[in-house]
Every structure is written in structure tokens, then in C-alpha cells.
Design brief:
The structure holds two protein chains of two kinds. By secondary structure, chain A is an alpha+beta fold. Chain A is about 30% helix and about 10% strand. In chain A, the strands form four sheets. In chain A, strands 6-7-8-13-14 form a five-stranded mixed beta sheet. Chain A has a four-stranded antiparallel beta sheet with strand order 1-2-5-4, with no helix packed on it. The termini of chain A are far apart. Classes of the chains: A alpha+beta, B alpha+beta.
Chain lengths: ~475, ~400
């Protein structure tokens, strides 16, 4: 459980930890209840000959997978399931219908949820209820994933039992924002699912609608030498700090945090989050000159071996590193690599290419970029570099205080269905700087403005804007 | 866990025993021991072979990671099989990546290789691999995608199907590391882009081509008309009273660019249409700050048909682009970096993809994409213009 005092509920390395057996719904016999032959001969209720063509080919087939869940549910029987045993059959049937007709059969919206929350569950109904009654409801429950999506199998198996007993047995691992997604449940099962999740699994549901969406993060310091701050812990702490904002929609539209440990941006925060936290450093790149020599000598594969599938010829540090450096701040004299760190913009190329010779600096923190979003409505935006550097120290008060400032302002200023990037665009970055109480910096722009339509405040211009036309006319007769 | 229709929930006392605001399960309890021991101490990494990474700690310890694909839409049967494998090989620990790959982390190379072999041997009865390993280095990682016809009310195409078809034709690029740089493909089934594909090397984007049909019968009753009017970014929607006296809206079809924002606000304005819907292809985006700054993907094909079940028009183009790029680009060049270096005119020439009037931006800030320089390269496109004005 995430709640204080429950952080080790499922910890296998602790003596008294919770196990799957403590909460399981299904017996081993129920879980292994069909043979390969039965699966081979299994036919779902509907003709699905068109989507069955997606069973061939090497890539894992979702159709094959849904079919085995359909068989498993048939064998479990309706007595052991709280929603229709044939739900997967009907799902495949309606997808087949869409493949024939080229149009979706899912209806618009439907507001469902659990008491006291306004988000986390997305209602869904189909428009062919007579033909496919078992998917009359097909609601989605978003479950807040643990940082960097690490699991113990005990926990995951518990999740599976809930998703099968009270859901369709189909999931997304994971949804686009990062949640574990239980697909296909009925309205009467939402509260029981919520109770099971919170009581037995120790996990809460995620965000949907005009609220803080479930934050997500890269693997960070758990298994990456590039991570400049503890993404997993900051993601967890920020999620806990803003639970109210996550569960009870009070925002003009969705708001996303994402946490990337370095400028490589594996979690895509710069493109996909309203507030992107991207790790960086402010001292020097650490150089191991001996290892550089080994790269030059071809003893260590470049990029950790990422190019190994093709013969690219001998590694050439001049053309591949020095010349590709975007700021040209590196030099190689045949023996020694030197970096003018003051001119480095920390693009990561040299570090990515020679991870055994170069390391990110030791004086680490993060940058914050605001306003990324997909095109709806005013066009796609990427995050605008707004905060160049912040130390990241538990309990993260400076990060939390900044967020509070942003939320307080945006709740007041934002229009309905306007992402914060659009609000900033509408009221100007200058105004946003005033809100945050930060001075402008050239790093916020790609280049200075080329139009001269500068707004001045009345107080900035001596004498103000109220002028005496008669006095003017004494100087300039009509 | 609870059993029975209501489980722990008592509708007569809905607050009884209710636990709220507990957030996610704490990550600390989910970490394999080798990760706990070396948290924050990692020094470097290597990719030993496609789908197998080793991370080396300052303590000298090593973590071996086997990466395998998953189709994102997975059943609990599939997850339980993943758990069985994790129990057998990884002491009950497993993780997933942002791109829906499965990662098994071990502390022994031989054991990791044995696990990899086992994963590559597992197949569905229908013939596809269950857990193909790969997705590392300069190859294609998993294709991230949205819900499509499996679950969504606004899609212009399916998601799982076109992704399966595309991944099938590019399977070798998932299994190998022979491309000039990383290849990141994403699919979103409508402009809402819950898949946020707009910064991908190749983006497949469901696109409607018909303005909404208007359901005058219900629109005024179920929708807030001022909100519907305000929802249109092109001011194409106006409130009207129909001849029958019903409150409704009109849509100026000439102005509509089929974004579907009105449908999101109001069920009386559906867009889905067999003939209208299809897939647009965008290329050249990226997230990483490596060498060049992050980039948006650019529209190179405005629309291709939904040709179920395998979208051959789409997969052929994607495969072709990857082949041309792989052959022509320099080491380290993502598709967008390559196209930027050779010039987009050369991109269209080399790929043979037609540059049409639809490739000229006519939305807001379109002028930002106009070339304001005499720096260009000669291609047949240029000669055609010169000929058209009698210049040559």
C-alpha cells in the first residue's frame, strides 16, 4: 500500500509480507483450466474470420490472446465471475463488426465513478446491445501504477484476479499516461473493484477528466547511470502530495506531470506533460580518459553496442563525437578528450555514445518545462523551458510549492478544455513568469521576438496614458 | 480479495470501511534485490545482444535485463504467464517499460540468456510469438498506441490491428540493431492523440475526412449548445433552430477540419464514417535532446484508407520509409535529422512519396513552415514548377 506505514506491505524481502495466496480469488485448478488442444479447437461465439487474420505473423497477436482469455472464462463459468463469462466473445464480435464496417461501435461517454472521486473511471457502452449484451457496459478503471512500473508477481497476480473476476480479464499494461488499465467492467462492479484495490492490493485508482492525471516516470536511478535525480521517488511523492487534485476534478482540463531522469527523455515528458521534470547537471561531465582511449581503439563498442547489427566501420571520435557535438565544445588531440563544460548544452550525445568513458556531472538537479500537449486544439506544443535548474531534495518542498503556485493560478485563469500550454500562450509567457515570480531569461526562447509589438505597462511610461489633447494642440495645431 | 456481487462494499453504508487517497503502491517493495543494492550507483551499461542489456554498478555488481515485446492490450492469462516466467527466473520480480515492453531483471548472465531463449521459444497457438525479445539499441522498439475499435468512441481507425500489421512487417527491425539510429513508431486513432504521437519518428494518425453528421433530434436536449459552439477551433459551428423548432447547431462544412472536438463535447455530432476515415502518416519527430533538439513529426501523407484487416497501404509506406532512411542516413541520424540534412525535397524524391497541395500547411501559423530562402535543391518537383510558368 502506498499509504504511510504500508510501504512494505508486499515486500518479498521482508519476513511478514503479503502474498498472492492471502488475497487470491481463483484456485490453481481454476487458473490452469484448459489444455492446448482445447485452445486449438476453441471457437468464440461469433464469426471473427476477419480479425483472425491478425493471428498470423510474428508480432504478438492480441486476437490470439483475447481468445485464450475467452476460453479461460468459459471454463471458469458464470458462477465464478461477477460479469458475463462471454464478455471476450462479444468484444471480439464487436471488433470484427468494426473491421467489416470501418466504424467504431462504442458510444459517446457515460459518467460513472466511485463515491467521493470524480476521476479514474471512464464509462463505456456499445451501440449494438441486442447483439452484444455481454459488453453492454465496458468501463475502464485506471489504476495508479507504481513508479517505473516495477512489480512483484504476488501483486500482479492479485491485480489479475480482480481484473478477471470483476472485469473482462483484459487490460492495458499500460495505458498511454501510465496507468494499469482494467478494461471492461460493469457499473455495479466499480465500487467492489475500488474496495478490493484499496483494501487488499493497497493501490488507488488514477486520474481522468479535468484533474491531475496519473504521473509517470522513467526508471531513473533504479537502473540507469544517466538519471540526474530520483525520478521514482519524486514521482511517488508528488503523486501522494496531490491526491486531492488527482481524484477530484477541479481543473479546466487535464494536467500531466512526467519525470525524466535526463535529457534523453525516455518518458517523453517534453512532448506529453504539462509540467515536464527533466534531470540535468551543472558541473562538469566526468571523463575517464583511459576509457576514451579504449573507445578510440575499438575495444569498447560505441553506444553500449547499440549499433552492433551493422558494420559501420571503425569508430572515429572526431567525426562521430567531436563534429556532432551541437555546441562544438569538445576537442580530441589524439590522446586526450577535453570539454569546455561552460559551453556544453547537455544534449547527451557524447555520454550516450561513450557511457563507459563519460558520465553526467555530479552536481545534479532538474529543469522544468511547461505546456506540452497533443494538437487538439491550438496545435501541438512541446514543453517550454521555464525553470533551468532546481535541486531535488526530499521532501521536495521547492517542487511542491512551485506546483501549488501553478495550480492556484491555472484554476482561476484557464478556460474550459484549455491545457496550461494554451493558457500560457493566451495570456503570454511574460504573464506566466509574473505568476511564478521569476525573471525572464533568454533560455526561454529559441530566439528573440522579431515583431516589435511590445506591450508596456502604463506605470512604465512617464506621465502615464491620460494625455491632454489641448496641450498637444498647442504644440501641434490641427 | 472479496467475493460475491458487492464484495466489501455495502451500498447501505457506502462510507463504511472506505479507504481513499492512498495513491500508488510504494515502488520500494517492488524492486528486485540487485536493483535495491545498486540504486543510484549505476556506472554504465552495454547491450550484449538485441534484447539483452547489462548495467554495471560502481559496486561491481551487474544487472542483466531481458526485454520482450507485449502488445499493450493483454489479458490476465498473458500477465499470469509473464508472472510464471518471472517466478521461475527472476524470483518473482518483473517490470514494464514506457513503450509497453516487458523487462526481466537478473543478476547472472547465463541465466539471463537461458531466459531469453525460453521467451523466444514461446508462441501463441495462432502462430505469433508471445514474448519476442528485442527492442534495444538502434532498432525499432515497441509501437505505442491507443484503444481504437476495441474501446474508444472517437477513433478514425483501429489501433491494435494496424499496429500488429506494422510490427509484423518491421519485425526484423525489432529483433536487430542495424538502423542508423533509434526508430520510434506510434499510433493514435484520432486527433485527440491520447497516444501523443506528435514527436515520433513515424506516427500513424487516425484521421476523419467528413464533417460531423448532425443529430438534430437530440442535440438540443443532451448538449450544452454554447459549449459545442465554443468547442470548434475554426468557428464553424453556429446555434440554430431547425424548421421543426428544435434547438440545434449548424456546421459550416467548408471550414471544418474534422478534429472532432465538437463530438467530444456533444454526442449529437458523430464523425466516424467508413469512406471518410483513414490514417495520416507523419515522420521525423523525436523526443530526445541528443544532438538536435526535440522535433514534431511532419505530415507526409495526409490520408490512406482503412483497409482491414492488415492496412497494406499503410504498412507498405512505413516499411518503405524505413528502408530508404536505413540505406541513406548517416550513423546517429534519426529520420527527422536525416530529412533535415538532405532537405525535405530530397526526402520526397528519395521516398517517391507525392508532395501534393495538401502538403502545404494552410492552418494557423502555416507561414512558419514556408521556406524563406534561396537555399533549395533541384528535384522533379522544382522542374515541374519552372515548366508550369514557362520558365524552362
Amino acid at each position: 500500500m502506498g499509504a504511510p506505514g504500508q510501504e512494505k506491505l508486499w515486500d518479498k524481502e521482508e519476513k511478514e509480507h503479503k502474498k498472492y495466496d492471502d488475497i487470491r480469488i481463483f484456485t490453481d485448478e481454476q487458473l490452469k483450466n484448459y489444455t492446448d488442444d482445447e485452445l486449438k479447437n476453441f471457437k468464440v461465439k461469433h464469426d471473427i474470420s476477419m480479425i483472425e487474420q491478425l493471428e498470423s505473423g510474428p508480432w504478438p497477436s492480441f486476437v490470439s490472446d483475447i481468445k485464450r482469455e475467452a476460453l479461460h472464462r468459459h471454463k471458469l463459468g458464470q458462477d465464478n465471475l461477477m460479469i458475463p463469462a462471454d464478455i471476450c466473445d462479444d468484444l471480439l464480435g464487436i471488433v470484427e463488426l468494426s473491421y467489416k464496417e470501418g466504424e467504431t461501435h462504442w458510444k459517446h461517454g457515460g459518467i460513472v465513478g466511485v463515491l467521493g472521486y470524480g476521476g479514474g473511471i471512464v464509462g463505456r457502452y456499445n451501440d449494438q446491445q441486442a447483439q452484444f449484451p455481454n459488453i453492454a457496459h465496458f468501463h475502464t478503471i485506471r489504476v495508479n501504477q507504481p513508479s517505473a512500473k516495477f512489480y512483484t508477481t504476488d501483486w500482479l497476480r492479485g491485480f489479475c484476479d480482480i481484473a478477471e473476476y470483476r472485469g473482462s480479464g483484459l487490460t492495458n499494461l499500460h495505458g498511454s499516461t501510465g496507468d494499469l488499465v482494467i478494461l471492461g467492467s460493469f457499473s455495479d462492479q466499480l465500487e467492489p473493484i475500488f474496495f478490493d484495490l484499496t483494501h487488499d492490493l493497497g493501490v488507488d485508482i488514477g486520474g481522468s477528466g479535468g484533474n491531475l492525471r496519473t504521473p509517470s516516470d522513467c526508471i531513473g536511478k533504479a537502473r540507469c547511470e544517466f538519471a540526474c535525480y530520483d525520478t521514482m521517488d519524486l514521482c511517488y511523492e508528488m503523486t501522494m502530495e496531490f491526491q486531492d487534485e488527482l481524484h477530484r476534478p477541479a481543473f479546466p482540463y487535464k494536467f500531466k506531470f512526467k519525470f525524466d531522469g535526463c535529457p534523453n527523455g525516455c518518458t517523453a515528458s517534453i512532448a506529453r506533460s504539462d509540467m515536464a521534470y527533466i534531470g540535468t547537471w551543472k558541473d562538469d561531465i566526468r571523463i575517464n580518459q583511459d576509457a576514451v582511449q579504449e573507445y578510440v581503439a575499438g575495444k569498447i563498442p560505441v553506444d553500449g553496442g547499440a549499433f552492433a547489427g551493422r558494420d559501420w566501420g571503425k569508430f572515429d571520435i572526431q567525426s562521430e563525437i567531436i563534429d556532432l557535438c551541437p555546441t562544438k565544445c569538445m576537442k580530441w588531440d589524439g590522446k586526450k578528450l577535453s570539454i569546455n563544460n561552460a559551453e556544453c548544452n547537455r544534449c547527451m550525445h557524447c555520454i550516450d555514445a561513450m557511457p563507459e568513458a563519460l558520465r553526467v556531472g555530479k552536481d545534479q538537479g532538474l529543469s522544468i518545462l511547461f505546456g506540452a500537449k497533443a494538437p487538439i486544439l491550438e496545435g501541438a506544443q512541446m514543453g517550454c523551458l521555464t525553470i533551468p535548474f532546481m535541486y531535488v531534495n526530499k521532501p521536495y518542498d521547492s517542487q511542491k510549492n512551485l506546483v501549488r503556485k501553478v495550480f492556484d493560478w491555472w484554476i482561476e485563469e484557464g478556460k474550459n478544455r484549455e491545457r496550461i500550454g494554451e493558457t500560457i500562450q493566451r495570456v503570454s509567457l511574460k504573464t506566466f513568469c509574473e505568476v511564478l515570480g521569476i525573471p525572464p531569461m533568454p533560455q526561454m526562447v529559441k530566439e528573440p521576438r522579431s515583431n516589435p509589438y511590445v506591450f508596456f505597462k502604463e506605470s512604465e511610461v512617464p506621465g502615464g496614458w491620460d494625455r491632454d489633447i489641448n496641450a498637444y494642440r498647442t504644440r501641434h495645431p490641427r | 480479495m472479496s467475493k460475491g456481487k458487492l464484495g466489501y462494499y455495502d451500498p447501505k453504508k457506502p462510507q463504511a470501511g472506505r479507504i481513499t487517497d492512498i495513491g500508488p503502491s510504494h515502488y520500494g517493495q517492488m524492486l528486485p534485490p540487485v536493483i535495491r543494492r545498486n540504486y543510484g550507483k549505476w556506472a554504465s551499461h552495454r547491450i550484449l545482444e538485441p534484447g539483452l542489456l547489462v548495467h554495471v554498478s560502481e559496486t561491481g555488481e551487474k544487472a542483466f535485463t531481458v526485454r520482450a515485446a507485449a502488445p499493450r492490450l493483454i489479458s490476465v492469462e498473458h500477465i499470469r504467464e509473464i508472472c510464471d516466467i518471472a517466478d521461475k527466473h527472476c524470483n518473482g520480480y518483473v517490470r514494464f517499460t514506457t513503450r509497453n515492453n516487458i523487462e526481466f531483471i537478473l543478476d547472472d548472465e547465463a541465466k539471463a540468456k537461458a531466459l531469453k531463449k525460453e521467451l523466444d521459444g514461446k508462441k501463441h497457438i495462432g502462430g505469433s510469438f508471445k514474448f519476442p525479445t528485442g527492442g534495444t539499441g538502434m532498432g525499432m522498439s515497441n509501437i505505442v498506441h491507443t484503444q481504437g475499435w476495441v474501446h474508444c468512441h472517437t477513433p478514425a481507425t483501429d489501433a491494435s490491428g494496424p499496429v500488429k500489421a506494422t510490427a509484423d512487417v518491421l519485425f526484423d527491425e525489432f529483433k536487430n540493431m542495424r538502423l542508423p539510429a533509434k526508430l520510434r513508431i506510434a499510433l493514435a486513432c484520432c486527433l485527440n492523440m491520447c497516444g501523443a504521437v506528435h514527436c515520433s519518428d513515424i506516427a500513424l494518425l487516425g484521421y476523419h475526412r467528413k464533417p460531423p453528421a448532425i443529430d438534430h433530434e437530440v442535440l438540443g436536449k443532451v448538449c450544452e449548445i454554447p459549449l459545442v459552439v465554443a468547442a470548434c477551433p475554426l468557428y464553424a459551428i453556429k446555434p440554430i433552430t431547425t424548421e421543426e423548432g428544435k434547438k440545434s447547431v449548424s456546421v459550416n462544412n467548408e471550414k471544418c477540419m474534422y478534429c472532432g472536438n465538437c463530438y467530444t463535447m456533444c454526442l449529437g455530432l458523430p464523425l466516424a464514417d467508413r469512406e471518410g476515415d483513414g490514417i495520416a502518416i507523419l515522420v521525423g519527430g523525436k523526443i530526445s535532446n541528443r544532438i538536435s533538439m526535440p522535433k514534431f513529426s511532419k505530415v507526409i501523407i495526409p490520408w490512406l484508407p482503412n483497409n482491414m484487416p492488415r492496412w497494406p497501404e499503410v504498412t507498405n509506406v512505413v516499411k518503405h520509409i524505413v528502408e530508404v532512411w536505413a540505406k541513406d542516413a548517416n550513423k546517429y541520424e534519426r529520420i527527422g535529422d536525416w530529412a533535415g540534412r538532405i532537405g525535405w525535397e530530397r526526402f520526397f524524391e528519395k521516398t517517391g512519396i507525392p508532395f501534393t497541395e495538401k502538403s502545404l500547411d494552410d492552418y494557423r501559423l502555416a507561414v512558419d513552415t514556408y521556406r524563406t530562402s534561396t537555399q533549395f535543391k533541384y528535384t522533379d518537383h522544382a522542374w515541374a514548377v519552372s515548366k508550369a510558368v514557362g520558365g524552362i
